[in-house]
Specification:
Strand content: 15-25%
CATH superfamily: Winged helix-like DNA-binding domain superfamily/Winged helix DNA-binding domain
Number of domains: 1
Number of strands: 3
CATH class: Mainly Alpha
CATH topology: Arc Repressor Mutant, subunit A
Shape: globular
Helix content: 55-70%
Strand order of the largest sheet: 1-3-2
Number of helices: 5
Oligomer: single chain
Distance between the termini: 25 Å
Order of helices and strands: HHEHHEEH
Structural class: alpha+beta
Largest sheet: 3 strands, antiparallel
């Protein structure tokens, strides 16, 4: 799982999905990547069981599989933010 999180695009996708579910087109716009690249990243995340898909008409909406993953992603990004910004970490 951590190897999947090491890719910046996948981490960005997980962060966006931690905020709310979304479709490929919206995610591609927000991460400034092609729909094809985003679809490939999402396929890897689905195979790993980190995201799940829900079809609505012609659109497929993706979301994180559970709250544990959401907390892990948010904590990892918060930790990285503190390291980069120099702010004191939380206890």
């Amino acid at each position: 799982m951590f190897a999947l999180l090491s890719d910046t695009t996948r981490l960005h996708l997980l962060w966006l999905l931690a905020l709310d579910e979304s479709d490929v087109g919206s995610l591609a716009d927000r991460v400034a990547a092609s729909r094809t690249a985003v679809s490939q990243h999402l396929a890897k995340l689905r195979l790993a069981g980190l995201v799940e898909a829900r079809r609505e008409g012609r659109h497929v909406h993706y979301r994180l599989t559970d709250g544990h993953l959401r907390r892990l992603v948010m904590e990892a990004l918060s930790h990285a933010d503190h390291r980069v910004s120099g702010r004191a970490p939380h206890d």
